[in-house]
Design brief:
9 helices; alpha/beta; Rossmann fold; UbiE/COQ5_MeTrFase; disordered N terminus; seven-stranded mixed sheet; binds S-adenosylmethionine
Length: 234
C-alpha cells in the first residue's frame, strides 16, 4: 500500500501496519497534534520533561519518539537525548531537529544493558504490539537507580467530563483530523486505541509487573493524559 493512501492500523497493532500508518501521517504529525489538542500538547511535553527531572550530561532514551518533538523538549535540559522509533517516515520528518536518532523496535531495543539515566515514551506505548515487553526492554537499558516516565492518553477522572470526552473523541476527532492530517483514518485508530487503553491504576500495575519500582502517576488536564513514573532498583 502506498504510504500516502488513507490507512489505519487495527487494534491488534501489527508492527508493519503501525509503522506504515505513522509513515503516512509523519509529514503533518506535529501540526495535527497541536491543532487537535488546542496547543495542550506543548504543555504536556513540558510537564513530561519536568517529571523526568533531567540533569545536564545525563543520557536519555526517548522511545517511540516519532519526529523527535518530545526529544527536543527533553534536550532543553542539557541532557543527551536520543530518539528511537521504528517508523522511518516519522524519523525522517523530524530530521530537521538535528537530534541523535536510532531506528529500532521497542520490543528489541538496539542498546546495551544499563546505559540510560532516564527513559521516556510519550504517546507511544499504546501503539506497541506488546507494551509489557517494551516496558521490560526499557528496564533493561536503564541504569540501576534510573527512572522511567510514560506519557500517555488516559481516562478522565471526572465522570461527566469522561463521557463528553469519549464522545468528542469518537465523533469529532476524525472529522477535525480530516481537515489537517495527511491520513485522517489514522485518527479513527487514535480514538479507538485510547478507549481500549488501561486506565491509570491498571497501567501502574502493568508497569510494576514489568519490574519497575515505586510506580506513581500524575494526571494532566483532568486525566486526558497521565504521566506514570517508575524507578529501576539500584
Ligand atoms: C503517537 S506517536 C508518538 C510520537 C512522539 N513520542 C510524540 O510525543 O509525539 C507513536 C510512535 O510510536 C511508534 N511506535 C509504535 N510501535 C513501535 C515499536 N514497536 N517500536 C518503535 N516505535 C514504535 C510509531 O512509529 C510512532 O512514531
Amino acid at each position: 500500500m502506498a504510504k500516502t493512501e488513507s490507512f489505519r492500523a487495527s487494534l491488534d497493532k501489527q508492527p508493519d501496519e503501525v509503522a506504515s500508518m505513522f509513515d503516512g501521517v509523519a509529514k503533518r504529525y506535529d501540526l495535527t497534534n497541536t491543532v487537535l489538542t488546542g496547543g495542550l500538547d506543548r504543555y504536556w511535553r513540558w510537564a513530561t520533561r519536568q517529571a523526568l527531572a533531567l540533569r545536564p550530561g545525563e543520557r536519555v532514551l526517548d522511545l517511540a519518539a516519532g519526529t523527535g518533538v518530545s526529544t527536543a523538549e527533553f534536550a532543553k535540559s542539557g541532557a543527551w537525548c536520543v530518539a528511537t522509533d521504528f517508523s522511518q517516515g516519522m524519523l525522517a520528518a523530524g530530521r530537521f531537529r538535528k537530534l541523535p536518532m536510532v531506528a529500532g523496535d521497542a520490543t528489541a531495543l538496539p542498546f546495551a544493558d544499563g546505559v540510560f539515566d532516564a527513559v521516556a515514551i510519550s504517546y507511544g506505548l499504546r501503539n506497541v504490539s506488546d507494551p509489557d515487553a517494551a516496558m521490560r526492554e526499557l528496564l533493561r537499558v536503564t541504569k540501576p537507580g534510573g527512572r522511567l516516565v510514560i506519557a500517555e492518553f488516559s481516562t478522565p477522572v471526572f465522570g461527566p467530563f469522561r463521557t463528553i470526552y469519549m464522545e468528542y473523541l469518537m465523533r469529532a476527532l476524525p472529522r477535525v483530523a480530516r481537515a489537517v492530517s495527511s491520513n485522517p483514518d489514522a485518527y479513527v485508530y487514535l480514538a479507538e486505541s485510547i478507549r481500549a487503553w488501561p486506565n491509570q491504576p491498571q497501567l501502574a500495575m502493568r508497569i510494576a509487573d514489568a519490574g519497575w519500582s515505586e510506580v506513581k502517576w500524575r494526571n494532566l488536564t483532568g486525566g486526558i493524559v497521565a504521566l506514570h513514573r517508575g524507578y529501576k532498583l539500584g
